[in-house]
Design brief:
- The protein is an alpha/beta fold.
- The protein has a single domain, classed as Metallo-beta-lactamase, Chain A (4-Layer Sandwich), CATH 3.60.15.
- It has seven helices and 13 strands.
- It has helices at 38-47, 65-68, 71-77, 91-99, 151-162, 180-192, 206-216, and strands at residues 2-8, 22-26, 30-32, 57-59, 82-86, 103-107, 112-115, 118-120, 132-135, 140-144, 166-172, 197-201, 228-230.
- The protein has a seven-stranded mixed sheet.
- Strand 5, helix 4 (91-99) and strand 6 form a beta-alpha-beta unit.
- Helix 6 packs across helix 7 (206-216).
- The longest helix has 13 residues, at 180-192.
- It is globular and about 45 Å long.
Amino acid sequence: MKIKIVFDNYKANENLESFWGFSCVIDDYFLFDTGSNGRALLRNMAKMGVNVKDLKYLFISHPHWDHIGGIDSVVDVNRKMSLFLPNSLSKLYIRDLKMLSREVKVVYENPIKLFGKFYSTGVMEPIGEQSLIIDEGEFSIVITGCAHPGVVNIVKRAIEVLNKPVGYVIGGFHLMRSSEEEIAKVIKALRNLKVEYVTPTHCSGDLAIEMFKNIYGEGYIPGGVGRIIEF
C-alpha cells in the first residue's frame, strides 16, 4: 500500500505548494480529504503522479474548511467518484454533491465497512469527525483528519471495529495547543495500545511532532506534502 501526502502545511518536497490543511491519496485511487485550496491540491497531485480522473473514492473526515476546501476543484474534474461524507457536513452541501458525483454515502455515528479493506470509525464527537481504517491483515492503519475526538479515542475505536491492533496512525493529531505533559500522555497511551508507527502532521503542532520523533525513534515517519509512505 502506498500513501501520498498531497496537501499539508508542512513540506517534504520544496517543489510542492503548502497551505494549512491535509489531504492524502491511497494507492492513487482513494482520496482522503481535500485540504483548503483546491487549485494547489490539483497541482500537487499532478506533480506527484496522481491523475484526478483516476480517483474512484473521496472520503471527507469533517466539515472544517481546511479539509473540504478542495472538494469543488476535485469534483469539477472528476464526477465519477463515490463520496463518503460525515453527516456533520451541511445537508445542502451533501445535496449538491449528490449531483456532482457518482454516488454519496453519508456516514453516521456507527462504524461501517465502506468496501473491501476500508472502514469508517463512524462519526465521533465533539464536531462530527470520522476517521478512515484500512485493514492490512495482521494490523490496521488509521488516517485522521484533525483527530478532534482525540487520537487515542480514535485508535481505540479502530481496535474495536476490526478486533486487531492499529500498527500505524497518520494525519492531524490536534495537539498544537496541548502542553508537553498532555502530549506525553497521548504518546504513552498510543504506545500502550501497541501503535508501532506514527506520522503526526498538519494540526499536531511542532512540539508534539518533535516529541513523537524523539520517543518513537524509528517508528516516527515524517509528514509533509510530497511524502510517500509505503507498507
